[in-house]
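Q: Joint fold for the lines below.
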Amino acid sequence: MSSRTLPLLFINLGGEMLYILDQRLRAQNIPADKAKKVMNDIITTMFNKKFLEELFKPQELYSKKALRTVFDRLAHASIMRLNQASMDKMYTPLSSGDFQLIRQTLLIFFQDMHIRVSIFLKDKVQNSNGRFVLPTSGPVPHGTQVPGLIRMFGCTGEETSRVQFSNGGNYTSAVREGSFELFGDRVTKLGTNMYSVSRPVETHMSGTSKNSAQHTKVNTAPNPLAKEELNLLAKLMGGLEVQKPGNTDSGFRVNLFATDEEEEEALISRPDELSYGVIKIQATKDQQANAELAKIMGEFTESGDQSPSASSKGDDLLAMMDGL
Amino acid sequence: MYHKEKSIQIKNSASALYNNLGVLRIAPRRLTYFTVVHANVVNMVSASWDGLNYSHRQLQSKEPNVATSTSLIMQAAFCVLPSRDLLVVTSQKGIQMYESDGSIMVYWHALDTPETPTAQAVFARGISAVWENYICVGVSSGAILVFDVPSKGSNITLSEVLEEHKESITDMASECSGSQECIADLVSADDGGNLCVWKSGEEFQLLNKIPGFDMSCSSVKLWKGTVVAGYGTGQIRLYEAVTGILHAEVNAHARWIYSLDIAPFSGLLLTAAEDSLVRVWHLTMTPETNSVEIAHLHNECVTDTQICGARFCDSDGYAFAVTGYDLSEIIRYTQT
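A: Joint structure:
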């Protein structure tokens, strides 16, 4: 499938995460300077030059779990310095077929997830069974004609007849094409902030949002791609510089639920399969640890054992983690 | 004109891929095989005509190297040759050919896949049986691999590589398999909307090239010398294969067309798109005036579903079946 899917997926999901964080920071009345710092830190980490270079390399899409781990790290990252990343270098002009392939790859990634999102349910964009609404009305996409016309031609190319048929919907002509400039009217609402419109406060959801986690089918089978995914994570996170929060006063907790009670309930009812064990890998430059490891490695070769062949991917990962 | 029948449940949901439904009718045993692709698996169902027996089987994509990456399947299709029927499965890594019931893999052809992923994706897509003994498979580079298939056994060989398309092959179709003589017996389509018309033989001959409009042609069929092509714009075009003359142009769908099928005995045409609609049309040939006409007959809306596969279940078009993205069933319709 397409090897150019990951940047789109990451930037779209990252963008949505930013909208949500921004909305929650406002809703919880976090002081403006702290909120600004959080947003700044995350945005600059997302667009860190080294990180983007890794992201934009042609590569396969890995699992939802691997991507989630990257976002977890991102959400806990903090500011390094403002880097201007040049994103236009990577995307050579894509044909309609290339876009459709990227889209098909993304659709495979999201297949079988029927998580209900309350804002989508309210806007009637998603049904209660989790499926998204596909209206048979509204404007057709740019480049498409409203269905309904059959034109037939003779051998010399002249039009011999026109017949209309009923298209079973209520379509209108395409709207103008959106702008691809740095600044311009995009025409579409996709990618804009759903939370910028003020919404009535949720009092009690009818059980749909609480049940949503239970309907997630998570694959808990051992993943044969685990090593590959760890390699990817190591490469991506190698570009993510993380500072340990030095001053506990400057940190604060953000609640993504409407109330603390809801957060507590969600934690209690969290299905086991959504949790995953965390293996802490010591990746900091620790002189003493490195010296220890070097000594141990030396002991192996001295005893005459074959040094592990460099072609094993697991060794690549360990070597890389040591070098960080 | 058609009414909905009982759906067939499948083991997992259909992926959003062009032409994602294979159908093979086995009249002597009164059953029909269906295939639906889900990521790296082909779901096969064998359904008895009395509706009482369903048996399931899953085929995995073959990966020559253990656990380096999953190989996603692009398409699975039945190839009907005079001497035998085969099930062909194309993926990112290569081409697998099975006996039609999916029981034994009789042939594997590996694609040249690079060590590290490149910007240009690598995969095989576009499958067609041609004439008496060929199976043609398209590749992302635009090449078409022609395999010579003996009447039995696994001594299948790569006979020729046709290099005419510059963009990824999307779909291929043929007519006159084994019986009548046709001038053109194969058409291939690509991501740029370009169509190539071929005559099969020891060396395949390019008869005509019909240029596209930079819009992917996702599905193509060949019937009585007419190419029927469906595009990402939702348009269908009918061309005379050998001359390239445009006979008809239809603004058929509001979204990307994903599947086309023709019932050869009746001239019924089935089209399906991401707009959730399946439409049935009728094609008529008038040899005296050398014209082809298309008339709209019927619509079926599969609510909130991006349709990815639609096929007639018989040569008259009495029944058809439909698959949709993320749907774990094969929906069926029969004429009233």
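Q: Anything notable?
A: The radius of gyration of chain A is 25 Å. Chain A touches chain B through 55 residues (CB under 8 Å).
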